[in-house]
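Hi P.,

Sorry for the delay on this. The queue was packed all week, but I finally got your sequence through. Input first:
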Amino acid sequence: MATITFSHHKGGTGKTTSCLNIAGFCAREGKKVLVVDCDPQANATAGLGIRLQNSDRNMYDVFMSGIEDFPETRIIDIIKRTDSGIDLAPSHLDLVGTDPYLYRTPNRAGILKEALSRVKDSYDLIFVDTPPSMGQLVINGLFAADRIIVTLDSGTFALDGIATMNTIFGDIREGLGKEIRPDMAIVTRWGEGTCTAGDVREPAGQQDLLSLIRSFFYKKTEPTPAELEAEKEQMAEHERLEAILAEIRGRFPLVYTVPFSSAVYEAQKRGLPLSHCAPDSSAGLAYKTIAEEVLRWN
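Then the structure:
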């Protein structure tokens, strides 16, 4: 059994999306998979189609178990089976209130690791989704991890995020004595000129055929100044992305890119990973390749 934690202190990097879709493809390979949602936003919980009732126990109860007068709750007590076949330890907004209590708790960094030790033999893979912050929930996720996956966006400040995370990992190493080394980086929404959700483009083969037909009937015109400027901007963007990717590859042992795909948003609305509803989408194929690498870790 391997525990794999997804981490980044910044939001919007595709952390939860990557967690769920890699988990989905691993489950499709017949692996017994548990996703642990440690983010109070509960996006992983919603992304697997689970809507908690107020009375449902969740990761808040697990983290608060035994603190002061809180009743004991084991992680097995909260696990739910999802339509995708993935088991889920769900989150809730209440989880945001755990940090003040955890700071006063001895061995607070090991709470999640201890909780998972009771179910680890029941699963082939455990995926931990952490919040975009640097509190006790993130530290617990990193401390419990056998492997760490960092997600990045392709924006201008992606490299700044890496430097900040290295500082965080160094602080954990000094404070807890555990070496924190990311095993993989995933750069999400990768590509140039990405389309927005709902944008429909002609398939490549059809587009080539149409271009060929048009060339017989229409004279090729000189590009306009606006077209020349757009081509220049596209070239500059290509060079920027290549430079970022080269820098990232120099800092992580494994680096994968996942292209933008509107299928991601459709899958999230359905409460299913891409593996179960759009496996042949561009993002689906990328996550399938990443999942194959992750399966070799186990």
